[in-house]
What we know:
The protein is an alpha/beta fold. It folds into 2 domains: 3-209, 2-enoyl-CoA Hydratase, Chain A, domain 1 (Alpha-Beta Complex), CATH 3.90.226.10; 213-260, Lyase 2-enoyl-coa Hydratase, Chain  A, domain 2, CATH 1.10.12. Helices cover 46% and strands 14% of the residues. The chain contains 12 helices and 10 strands. The chain has helices at residues 30-45, 68-79, 86-93, 95-98, 120-126, 154-161, 164-173, 179-184, 197-209, 213-226, 231-245, 249-260; strands spanning 3-6, 14-19, 51-56, 61-63, 109-113, 116-118, 130-133, 138-140, 177-178, 190-191. The strands form 2 sheets. A 6-stranded mixed beta sheet has the order 1-2-3-5-7-10, sandwiched between helices. A 4-stranded mixed beta sheet has the order 4-6-8-9. A hairpin with a 7-residue loop joins strand 1 and strand 2. The longest helix has 16 residues, at 30-45. The chain starts with a strand and ends in a 9-residue tail after the last helix.
Amino acid sequence: MPVHLETPADHPNVALVTLDRPERANALDPAMLTQLSAAWHRIADDPDIRVAILRGAGDRVFCSGMDVAATLSASQKLHRGERVSEEEFEGLRHVSTSLLAGFDLKTPLICAINGHARAGGFDLMLASEIRIAVPEATFALEEVALGLYPTGNATVMLPRQIGWAHAHEIMLTAKPFDAEKAARIGVINEIVERDRLMDRAFEIADTIAGNAPLAVSATRSGVRELLGMDLESAYIRQEEIGSPMRKTEDAREAQRAFMEKRPPVFKGR
């Protein structure tokens, strides 16, 4: 299968998703779209998974976006009213969920960017909360150079995540840029040497998974909800989200652990 979902035994509560089609630059064909959608649904529905990591197989490309010969060709056929195979139709039906465009994973996502992140690969990265990349990684949104509108996460998420001018430069020039610039303008969190990439990704994931799961989930969803609100409404809603957290068993456990000078044991209650 070109998409793998693992729950490593030595990293409790962490899921690892791998795009495994390196011979095709981890390009998303219909089968991958269907499988990736299924992986996201499984993660969103499993309360034992507190953090997810997404990576690409190989040492060259994280994800190059949609497979031009398979996915884009099938999409054009469908728009012309032509017949497509059942596998192609299923893949196209899952495009938005696969790219996490409008689908709430309900779980923090870390992208371990092992190479080039282009088009749909860039879109997947934009849906994540934390991104680390190797020095050789490059980034690009190339849709306008192909006569297309970027319908994944770019026009919705990118101007909310980085500066207005930088966002428009990326989207309107369609020019690739390197990891150093990506870190400088806030597209990624940090640059990590290749042999440390996955160790660092799991280090971050384990830290998040070790925190109170209800609080992590509420904080992640709260940030997204409050982002579009006016300040007065946002402060009111912030208190509505935060108040129940103070009454949880996990909050009481954290207080006891502090007083007893031991690590807390959170149960998500």
